[in-house]
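User: Some background: our group keeps a shared notebook of sequences we're curious about, and every so often someone picks one and asks for a predicted structure to add to the entry. Today it's my turn. The entry only has the sequence so far, pasted here. Could you supply the structure so I can complete it?
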Amino acid sequence: MGKKKYFFFDIDGTLTDRDTGIIVPSAAEAVARLKEAGHFLSIATGRASYKAEKFRRDSAFDHMVCNGGHGIVINGELKENRPLDHEKSLALYREAISAGYGVLVAMDDSEKVYANGFTFYEQAGLRKEPTVYIIDESYDPADYDAIYKLYVSVPEGEEDRLTLRHTLGSLRFEPEYLMFQPDDKRGGILRMIEIMGGNPGDVVVFGDDYNDLCMFDPDFYKVAMGNGCQELKDAADYVAAKNTEDGIYKACLEHGWFSPVS
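Assistant: Of course. Here's the predicted structure to add to the notebook entry:
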């Protein structure tokens, strides 16, 4: 009999084939066998809850760390979803506006973003994902209690003009704009473990990209996918085969994790 583990999986490039966006069949089989063996399984993603929810359901996960670690889903129910630090977000917003950049603000867990004009669109165009734009000349995020994400139309090479950019986690998926969002998967995993009464030493994390480095805690057993970035592989306890070459399934088989837990 094995020991119960707490597994946390990144989505893109780990569970899914990046070319199709669909979970790798052998990864889906591994998820089913791990659940059958009695382990705890969760997604760990930077995606907002509303973006990741369909994948969670379709992939048979009951639990999820989302919104970059600020969202906690247990048994299909969103239990927690913390926004960004409000004062830091407002300070960055004001700096970006003063520097002449457009800013879109997500104030809840949805496709809606708010702005006080069309500067973002004029500089960066439309966001590269489904979005509902709410443009109001009188809009000021200081009038509201929560900010979940900021999108700033600062192009590559001009980030230094945002002197406060390091006060919040940021990612760049597009050359036209920078996204500020929670970046604490590790904290979300620890919060989930606390709620579920687990031990950090029993956590196993799977990831593939730079943004997964934040969940590679020294207490966790860290698995990097063979298709992952070298920096993540260097920080891993184990480097699996590529995810599209059955990397998750093979890693679980090699470690004996399919055996029933005591």
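Suggested note for the entry: Residues 25-37 form the longest helix (13 residues). The first strand starts at residue 6 and ends at 9.
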